[in-house]
Amino acid sequence: MAYWLRRLQSRFGKAGRASSRGITDDSMTISERTEATDAVGLGADLATNLRNIKEIVGGNFDIGFREILISRDRIKAAIVYLDSLVDPNVVERILDRLTMGTFAIEREGGEIKPFDTALRSILIPEKGFRHVDSFPAFWEDVSMGDTGLLIDGFEGALVIESKGWYSRAVEESSSEPVIRGPRDGFVESLAVNVSLVRRRIRSPHLRAEKLTIGRLTQTDVVYMYIKGLAREGLVEEVRSRLERIDTDSILGSGYLEDFIEDTPFTLFPLVLNTQRPDRVAADMLEGKVAILVENTPEVIVVPATLNAMLQAPDDYYERATFGSFIRLIRIVAYIGAIILPGTYVAIVNFHIELLPTALLLRISASREGIPFPVVAEILMMEFLFEILREAGVRLPRAIGSAVSIVGALILGDAAISAGLVSPAVVIIVALTAISSFSAPTYSAAIAARLLRFGFAVLASILGLFGLQFGLLVAITHLAGLRSFGEPFLAPIAPLVTDELKDSIVRVPWWAMIYRPGGREPKRQDMGQKPRPPKSEEPSD
Predict the structure, then answer these.
(1) What pTM was estimated for this model as a whole?
(2) What local confidence, expressed as pLDDT, does residue 109 receive?
(3) Measured distance CA(79)–CA(148) in Å, rounded
(4) 479 and 336 in one domain?
(5) Per residue in 168-210, pLDDT tens?
(6) Are residues 431 and 329 in the same domain?
(7) Does residue 299 fall inside a structural domain?
(8) β 272-274/219-226 pair status
(9) Pairing mode, strands 289-293 and 272-274
């Protein structure tokens, strides 16, 4: 009983205790400390401000406090920064400008405003600064690598930009490689990622709006769109879904997905994840919205469709005929990754009359002495392959691929030699795995990997009728899914004939007059099909 009384007291009595105990009580919970610190302002007394800041942040080894005297009047001031996030050269320049640059400033009749104006003019050569009047706003900038300036007699504080943390160099995306196309990919720096998109879309109508999400992490999230091309309803929906997120931490784009998806309990991803700036730019030119998260190289694009998840940049960088060919192969492989194991189970168990006699005899001979039914063989080998795939991902990159390949060969050969599985099952599992690798979007490939287990079980119960029933349920489920209100199976269901030019196949660029989405459907003028030059008639 005492335990539950303490729980109720901690849940409903936070505000009163937080305000009465101040901001230094070690017994406070994180919610109580946050509530107390949010009410701390930055007044005109330097000693009080420094004392409050030190009490709140505690004894962090990387936080720096430098107290200095500025101007002829020897006004007390202090800078606050985090060693691990600032550029030390910028901090030294700030100190030099404050101590030496302000020496010529004199107060006029004790007024602080002229001094404030002169101080700003001295700091203008730095990258930028702004004025804050509360501790939460002050610490938000300091924790991002800026330097806070507190001056005795000056209300609030100035925050001077001094970021200098390490950022990974821009390099090609490892999960979405291309044969022909740009090699740059997103990194963990939000500013770099925004610049990669702006390099491709130089329109003044490109908008990049920022939010801060996460009470503890204070993660910057930017959503980008083209004003006048993206529907205002879509932009407002993205903004509202992001603003209503109230959680402690956002450490990556995957955290946001669970908060903003239309249907949380589905195997299929309802947002598109990519590490390629060119793909993000192409989607934004179709009226979509991109969501960029600090400290993660994956960018979310909404709305998403299954058709878009089966498209790859190579489809557009190659000629239309070859791009359509590889896209068709990819779609067939993706469907095969879902239904191939179930089809084998259904035919061997229920519909052997569909097999040629020679092939039937060969399969029957290979299954002689196998102690497990066909569906058990399939499920066991698929499960073992998933273990090998996961082990290859978690191992160091230098040996991960080698271990997964060698492990698959050894296990497959040993299972056949031991008479646990038939060679045909190993071939089916290998073909299924190779087909699942053809999906250009990792999230879509995961859906196929999970669905094939369910289809194999249905086929073992009802044969091809179970397979048909599973396909009917899957298609019905896909038809009912929405991504930010847009049909997930568009342009197939509902059928939009103008958008079929970039669905199963791709027509040449000069024939794609209309874009698949956006407020302005027309993309370019007609009549741009290339033609050979007219031959000149011979002169008499």
Answers:
(1) 0.83
(2) 46
(3) 5
(4) yes
(5) 788 888 888 888 888 889 998 888 899 999 999 988 889 999 9
(6) yes
(7) yes
(8) unpaired
(9) unpaired
